[in-house]
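hi! just following up on the protien thing from before. the input was this:
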Amino acid sequence: MAPIGSGILLAGLLVALVGVALGVLAARSGDAAALTAARRAIYALAALLVAAFALAEIAYLRADFGLAMVAESSSRDTPTFYKLTAIWSTQEGSLLLWVTLLAIYSSLALRLARGRMPQATPRAIALLAGLASFFLALMVIWESPFTRLSPVPPDGSGLNPLLRHPAMMFHPPLLYSGYVGFSIPFAFCVGALLAKRAGPEWIATTRRFALAAWAFLSAGILAGALWSYGELGWGGYWAWDPVENASLLPWLTGTALIHSVMVQERRRMFAVWNASLVCGTFVLCLTGTFLVRSGVLSSIHAFGASTVGVQFLALIAVTAAFSGWLVASRAPLLRAPARIESWLSREALFLANNVLLVGLAGIVLWGTFFPIVSEALSGRRASLGPPWFAQATRPLAIALVLVTALGTAAAWRRIRPRALLVALAPGLALVVVALVVGAATGLFARPAAAAMVAVCSLLAGVVASELVRGTAARARMRGERLPVALARLVARNRRRYGGFLVHAGVAVLLLGVAVSSSFPEQRDVRLRPGDRVQVGGYTIRYLAPTASILRDPARTGAPVVLGARLAVTRGRDRELLEPARNFYPARTGTAGPIESFFGGEATSEIALRSSLTHDLWIAFRPDVDGLVQVARALDRRLREPTPMQQLRAIAALAEIYRRDPPPATFRVIVSPLVAWIWIGGGIGLAGALLALWPRTRRPVVDAHRRARVRGLAEQPSPYPVVDSGATAVTPLTSSADTPYAALAASRASAESLQQRGD
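and the predicted 3d structure came back as:
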């Protein structure tokens, strides 16, 4: 399998280089045959890389420990579910995933862009193929997923226990899909600039890819937050960790890009700004990939050191320098005469939105790389913690939500202050309600949280009022029931209302973040069976310890699981919760075979009681020092125990723990509105999916029909015929076409009156 995989990678590198050459040839000569061949090279590259990725996954499923990658991150007792996900826990597998996604994205983009942008497309192909060549060269020369081990070990090291969580099945692929997805708008934008095409055609070609990349990145960030909340045992969902920040940076600039390109499409403005944004976003995507794998900044999300860090830094530097030079050199070509007519307009508010998003990205970037800067300047590495990030970003985040609400309510070009106030009225009413409820619950004890609740309520109210207003207008016009009118309204303009839904989701999510981070109740306590503690209105009683051997309830493959059975009461509600701690054997070290079962990594299986109002979160950490002492004694007595003796010894230790448990440490947190974070994220992703969903093709109302409506066409048509001397219009058969009937009637009436006047 290794020779086949290595051969596929080498063939892929050659095909990618051929794609670069053909793209350059097509760009210089305009040869259609060369362009077709370049496109087919990308298709062939995608097929080769999908085959290579499939081979790697088969190696994991077959437990082929002859491959270094498999031996490093899997083992015979690793559950099948996690064998499939182990590939992206390694550097080699991550590189293979990255370039495979790049080839798939490129193939799809070229398929959808056929016939469009003939000058920019060959240049985009050359750039995408060159990027693929870089990653393939890394694997062929330095980090091959198909490197063989000799001799072949009997078993592998196993997957890092922290990665044995369902969210990790999706978190890395989603993030990488977001990172790689932004390569498509980057490539076509650069291709257009190289071809000296200043129009927004590259936006129309790649808009969906930018939105899809943003959606994947959003889903990946959300999955990472779920993993952090449920696996790391500290009780939070966002720690401002360098790798977390690395995913947030392109999300912020990508959000700015998605808003800003709308202005260029509609008003032919912000062309230079948009080109800068798309280039900067892609550079940040490369930076995020580098931070995950380089180890240059310490992170709880970093699971391997990089041997290709220098090469990655060179790629980032070259990409940033080249794209910066290109945008600067094409700036005179990109500038348009259109200007903002009023600062009280949607385009002006979109500009403010962009400034705030880029400002937030700048703050996060500075805080993330501050340890490197401080070490370079003073020789001492200092870091900025979560309180600094929260304090620095909070004012801009509040202003951003406010500007988003105003932009949603405003019109293009200009809007009168009174009209804007009328559009904001439902949102302002919701703000009053939210603040009244907040005052009754102590919200004003945290002014920043109160401000965020206010602006989120304003945004949610504006979005809801837009939906209600549009639905009511359609229902009156078409005579439809309200649910039908809402569904058809959204279906006819998915991009607009998908964006509204995303805004509503962001409002709900940020409201949950503001409240949950401002009003948590936390206690760390040591309890014996029979003890109890009160936190946040809950009474928690430690009933009894639990111990499982080779029966892991979470199916992570942990051989030893120690837990606690808790009785949780609040008022008349009573519930049993069972937090646990998974223990994995140490693969290396000086511990004996029995002691090693407690010498490896341990992970938390939290107990969670979640509701719309709050979460009860409990983590458990048993005291195993006594068990370790007994295990050492057994190792000395048995010297070289057989697997069956080891199993019996561990079972005996579990029984000792159940009979005479030492005090255990519990972390209990009651946090309000945490569920709103996941609900808001789900709403936002649903909105992105709605905006991405292809529109149902409808019959085109062309110039022929418009001419016939005016009574000028002579050929028969399936559409209504209007007589220029009459004031009536032939009825349409479908109620969905009534606006066309009304339009035809009004035009016919106007023309009839004009003729009569003449």
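Residues 529-662 form one domain.
Residues 699-758 have pLDDT under 50 and may be disordered.
cheers
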